[in-house]
Amino acid sequence: MARVEYQARILPGSGYIEKTRPTELSLGMYSGGALVAPSSGVVSIYNVAGNAVVTNASVTITGSRAYYTTSEADFITESLGTGWRIEWLLTMPDGFDHLVRQDASCVRVRLPIPISHVDLLARHSDLDDQGITDFDDYLDEAHYEIVARLEARGRRPYLVMDPAALRMVYLYTTLAIVAGDFAGSGAQDNTWRYEEEKYRGLTREAWSEVTFDYDEDDDGKSNGERRRASIASLWLGGSRRGA
User: Fold this and answer.
1) What's the rounded Cα separation, in Å, for the pair 200 and 234?
2) How many Å apart are CA 38 and CA 100, to the nearest integer?
3) Of 43, 40, 66, 62, which Cα lies nearest the Cα of 54?
4) CA 139 to CA 112: how far, in whole Å?
5) If phi over 0 gives left and psi between -120 and 50 gives alpha, with beta otherwise, what is residue 125?
6) Going from the N-terminus, what domains does the chain have, and what CATH number goes with each?
7) Which candidate, 32, 30, 94, places its Cα nearest to that of 66?
8) Cα separation of 85 and 91, whole Å?
């Protein structure tokens, strides 16, 4: 059988491993627009020095995805920080073992999603009329987008001490994704298309205004100052915008 080039869906923040509690890690492999189940696999986790903390631990396959749950005992002596690596070695239906490397970090606590479907309905009660039982997939997608943006802006999401400060960013991002999905490929005057544009605009405003308590030195304590979502930028001419 020919080797298949599967697509590994590596989600922003999915490589954050909590040091003092079990962390569920997962990976989905896709081909032809569908999730493809591995027949078996192992996972290894390496610290910033490149030393194996977990070696060839067996994964479980549930819902066609590979899962592994860490044990806090393996990480008790490890240091917090970035530069870690997860390696998935999965045996796929093409008969080959596929190696997927994933960037990782050892963290105190992952950033939680600070809103729920209740907050979405509070803004749009008509969402209940769309035949959707829950909005978890939309909330998750917004979370991945926000985590990626924080990382790109130089802020590590797991160092945000007050997730509620990101409430409006989460709310508007999620509603923009929901509205965009409902609008589909309809005309530009489609009501949901208008809602998507509105919420994308509100999302941009929320990002420009948000500040939060931030654990700058990763010691588990707030630094006592509010931080913007972006680290200060250096501008030509030597001027520097405050962080």
Assistant:
1) 27
2) 13
3) 43
4) 11
5) alpha
6) 7-107 (2.60.40.1220), 117-228 (no CATH)
7) 30
8) 20
220 SS3 class: coil
For residues 119 and 241, give the distance between their C-alpha atoms in angstroms, rounded to a whole number: 34
pTM above 0.85, yes or no: yes
Closest by alpha carbon to 139, among 184, 191, 187, 175? 175
Query: Of how many residues is the chain composed?
Result: 243
* Contact of 66 with 24, CB cutoff 8 Å: no
φ/ψ of residue 17, rounded to 5: -110, 120
Long-range Cβ pairs for the range 179-184 (8 Å, 24+): 181/138, 182/130
According to DSSP H, which parts of 153-190 are helical? 167-183
Full pLDDT tens readout for the chain, 243 residues: 799 999 999 999 999 999 999 999 999 999 999 999 999 999 999 999 999 999 999 999 999 999 999 999 999 999 999 999 999 999 999 999 999 999 999 999 999 999 999 999 998 888 877 778 789 999 999 999 999 999 999 999 999 999 999 999 999 999 999 999 988 766 556 788 899 999 999 999 999 999 999 999 999 988 888 888 877 543 333 333 334
The residues facing 35 across adjacent strands are 30
